[in-house]
Design brief:
By secondary structure, the chain is of the alpha+beta class. The protein is built from 7 helices and 13 strands. The chain has 3 domains: 33 residues; 184 residues; 95 residues, 2-Layer Sandwich (TolA/TonB C-terminal domain).
């Protein structure tokens, strides 16, 4: 073989090696994105980036001082869920420590209710004001401890943090400045003058400086955070599972005289669509928005039986499978007069 032919062979081998490495890298990125329940940026880099122009150190002290105090959001209806009410109480200390008691109350058709409360404490470090809205301040949040109060049970919520080694480019992860601790999430607080908002909820100042922490929060909720005798919460402590258990118990105890496709669809839309189906679609899909439909049948006992058919647009096989499995867990009131299956369907956007 001549030297020219050998050189050509080396160049071809180098070219194919470069192509192979590029394909492997892109494939790994796609796998991480597909498997991730969050948007691609977080799937790749493993951490949510705070937005806006960073504060100087003296500005941080000023922001912390302005936010210091007690804030409350009472009885808000969780967006789209008329059967849930939210009460959220937050106290910001001047040194950046915060205490929070977030409670959801589930209003059942019979008039009964159940509550699920998360009490937490941590460190809130002002990061900066967003470019799009100068009234919006981003806070980097570091969780210190949290407990779940669910009916008579209380347990310690173990916080699972992402492993940097699982990221494709761990060196590009957002790293806190010295003394800030680990950044677990980012809160964007919007100042409306007479109140502030966080997500879909609005908060007003509560009382004055004479109101102490113990009387501001529900009795025992804050003290439980520092109890070393509490056991760690297991998977049965999730709010979603708690809601389903309440609904199954409620529906199982109250039968109905007649069941139609319209009543099944109405119950599914009220109790299962947004909180379970829509939330599931947003976790499973990586990119933005879409539409989906679920068709299913209910027997006389109120259980979903037989095949469940889901159709998503844009089509997503993983989502369709997850929605099929989700719908099979739904429960409805028993109907003694029902003789066959009643089929229904729901359509929603996410």
């Amino acid at each position: 073989m001549t030297s020219e032919a050998t050189s050509t062979s080396y160049r071809k081998a180098l070219f194919f090696l470069i192509v192979l490495v590029a394909v492997l890298f892109i494939g790994t990125c796609l796998l991480k994105i597909i498997k991730s329940p969050v948007r691609p940026a977080r799937a790749i880099f493993g951490s949510e980036q705070p937005l806006g122009v960073p504060f100087q150190e003296n500005q941080k002290d000023s922001v912390q001082g302005a936010m210091a105090g007690k804030w409350v959001s009472n009885g808000a209806i969780e967006a789209g869920d008329s059967f849930m009410r939210v009460t959220d109480r937050i106290e910001f200390k001047p040194n950046g420590i915060y205490w929070r008691v977030f409670s959801r109350t589930i209003l059942l058709p019979s008039g009964d209710s159940g509550s699920y409360t998360i009490a937490s404490t941590g460190y809130a470090s002002p990061y900066g004001r967003t470019n799009s809205s100068p009234d919006t301040v981003s806070f980097q949040i570091h969780f210190i401890g949290a407990t779940i109060l669910c009916g008579p049970d209380t347990c310690y919520l173990e916080i699972h943090r992402p492993d940097p080694s699982a990221s494709i480019l761990p060196q590009l992860q957002a790293r806190p400045k010295p003394g800030e601790g680990v950044v677990d999430t980012v809160w964007s607080l919007v100042d409306h003058g007479s109140y502030v908002s966080l997500g879909n909820f609005r908060y007003s100042r509560y009382g004055g400086s004479n109101v102490d922490t113990e009387s501001f929060f529900p009795v025992g909720s804050v003290e439980n955070i520092n109890k070393f005798s509490l056991g760690t919460c297991d998977r049965q402590s999730s709010f979603e599972l708690y809601v389903k258990q309440l609904l199954a118990k409620e529906f199982g105890a109250h039968s109905i005289s007649e069941r139609t496709a319209a009543t099944v669809a109405a119950a599914a839309e009220t109790y299962y669509q947004r909180f379970f189906a829509v939330a599931l679609a947003r976790r499973v899909t990586v990119y933005g928005t879409g539409k989906a439909s679920i068709s299913f049948s209910v027997n006389a006992s109120g259980c979903v039986v037989g095949p469940v058919h889901s159709k998503s647009s844009p089509w997503n096989m993983k989502l369709d499978k997850a929605l099929n499995e989700e719908a099979q867990t739904w429960k409805f009131p028993p109907c003694p007069s029902q003789t066959g299956l009643v089929s229904a369907s729901i359509n929603f956007s996410y």
